[in-house]
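Appendix B. Chain record.
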Amino acid sequence: MGAHTVFVNKKGEIDSFVNTVGSLVISQLCEKYNIPLFVIAEKDKEKNVSFLTTGEISTEQEVDLVDKKTKLILTNLQSQGHKIRILNFGYDLIPAHANTKYINEL
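Structure tokens predicted for this chain:
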């Protein structure tokens, strides 16, 4: 499976990754049934796992900001007569497990 971002520890080992929604359940099934999960991404998509905790705002604050902005944009578009609705958000943060294998171009 591909990844939009790969979070690695100090040793360069995969800690978690971001991918399209639905990927988390696939990863959980791989873990449950002892199936290897291959995560393939370019090296430049790597970030140190500390990136997840060193932001100036928390994950909860970021989600709240995105929700508010999304609702504002949606309301504005609907008030202009656009028949639009939000179906879903597109990404999962997936923790790596013992069966997760990370592959990059190096």
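Further analysis of this model is presented in Appendix C.
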